[in-house]
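Quick illustration, no need to memorize.
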Amino acid sequence: AAALLTVAPDVTEARHHVPGQEDPTVIELRQGGGFGRSLSVDPGLAALVGACDGDLTVGALVDAIADLMDVDAAALRADILPRVHELVFTGFLRFA
């Protein structure tokens, strides 16, 4: 959780909304290069990926996101960290 990460330069995010709804029904991360992977993510993981600019550790980002979403930080960390490892492994995120 002490890692500094950045988003790979070929990654984009798409949000799909039902007309009139504030919250997206689907948030998708896409890789432009590599295997061209696309995966659906929840708002917490999307927020973390969006904030990965190499300035704050993953742990600090998770704490801030938990505070913003009004959820338990430990529970969010347990949910998000394995998926962050997967995003690093698949090239969506890189070590800063």
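The helical segments are 43-51, 58-69, 73-89.
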